[in-house]
Each structure stands twice: as structure tokens, then as C-alpha cells.
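User: Teach me something about this protein's shape.
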Amino acid sequence: MSSVPTATLPTATTLEPRTREHAVAVVVPVRDERVDLGALVDAVAAALRGRAFEMALVDDGSRERIELVPRPFLRLLRHEVGRGYGAALKTGIRATQAPWIAILDADGTYAPADLARLLARLDDGADMAIGERQGSDGSSALRRAPKAVLRRFASAVTGEAIPDLNSGLRVFRRELALECWELLPQGFSFTSTITVSALARGRRVEWVPVALARRVGRSKIRPLRDTLAFTALLVRLALWFDPLRVFLPLAACFGLLALGCGVYDVLQGNLADKTVLLFVAFVQLLAVGALADLVLRRGRERGS
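Assistant: First, the predicted structure itself:
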């Protein structure tokens, strides 16, 4: 990766001043995009007129180097080899200093003008504001179905309704990302992870409806591989934040199966091995879940 200079906010001579506390760093990951990146940068600047901001455009190993007209608020960073969507976002976050972070996909699906509406939610005290996508980007039902299932699972993990789990347009406080920095993956699950982490920690997360345009170019998501990886990640997050939300449903399933088999065996006058195994599995899952929850709570008490 090319060297990353120390980031500084634009001075009051380049834009209208606002308090440092409300300054925002816009991070845009880019890889072989077909949109006009210069026009995108100008649209972001127009959307944030009157607000102190900086912008990091992170090229994640594009085949051709990106050339842009220099702007005083813009820095262009590059991974020589593609490291992933999440890695690009983390590079951009590390290279900036503003207390608020905004991320925006560069595939033309989101309007930069919506950033102002999302930032207004942070002005009102929210910790994260997410663009809730309205409409379709042209993805197939084969891709939408797993996303819906995973969104419902994430809602069960956090105990909160999640209308849009992995929107690529959102703003959040920098400390929110730092709290879960080690959990944030290098790939496309970055957005989902920070959403689940924020909700599980009791942060104030709000959704703002935004229009979704058709993607320019092809999606870089690999449906099967990324869905399996994201499912595994969600399970790990559930175990990290609230293990009982994973173990209790599993234990309940085995308990009901053991109960049903036990009733059948009593009626037949013979206790089968499968009933005993199901009951043992029920007890073990319940015990492991309770132990994991106890360890997690003790660790939080010591850390507080």
C-alpha cells in the first residue's frame, strides 16, 4: 500500500467553518469502478457545503491507477493488491481525523446528496445513521433471499428490528468503529458487523430511507462464498455479544425433540438410545450457553 500521510481537516479558508465536533470524514472504497469519480467527489463536496469535512478515496487494487484533479479536502490512497472492501474502509478511517465518519459506495447506487440527511441524525444525537435502501439495484432473487434470512437472524441476535443490515451509505461516530475495530472484517461484512456491534452495545442507530439507483458495472460480491462467510461471522458476533441467543434456541430444539421421542418411547414401553442422546445434547447446549454467558458478563464487569 502506498504511504498514508497524516490527515488534516480543511482550513476555514477553503470552506465555511463549523465546529470541529461536527466535522466528517467521507471514506469511499474504489475498485475498477465505471462511474465518473471526479463528478462523485464534487457531488460529495456539494452535499457537505457549510460543514467541515475531509475525504479519502481508497483504491483497493484497481487494474488502472486513478488520476483525479487535486482538491484541498481530498486524499487518494491505494492498496497495490486488492485487500477487500472492509480493508479499504479501515485504511480510509485510519488516514483521517474527523470525529464523524461517512462511507459511500462508488458504484452509483447511492446519491451523495443523502449524506446531509444522514448527518442531521448525528447532529440530533444518534451514534449511527444508515441509508435504508428503497427500490432495487437489479440484484436477483437468489441474492436477495439469503440477505433477508441473515437480516432476520441479525435482528434476533441484537433484539432490535433491522430494516437494512449492510447498506453501503451510512454515517457514524469514530469511537463506534474503534470500539469494535478488531471485529471488523476485511471483506464485505464490514457494514453488517458494525451494525450488529452498535446495536448489541446499546448504541442509538437510526435508518433514513434513501433512493437506490441501478449499479454502474458489475457487483464484486461472490454470492455463495460471501454469504457463507457472513453467516459464520454473524454466529461469532452472536457468541461474542449474547451467546444465549444462539445456545438457547438450539437447546430448545433438542429439548423438544427429546421430549417428543421420550413420549413415543413411553408409549412403546422402551427407552431408545436416540432419546437419551437428544436429552444429553439438550443439557450440554444449555450448560455451555450458560457458562459462555457467565464468562462474558464477568469479563464485562471487570472491564467496566
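Now, about its shape. The domain at 20-241 is CATH 3.90.550.10 (Spore Coat Polysaccharide Biosynthesis Protein SpsA; Chain A). The CA atoms of residues 168 and 257 lie 41 Å apart. If you'd like, I can walk through any region in more detail.
User: That's plenty for now, thanks!
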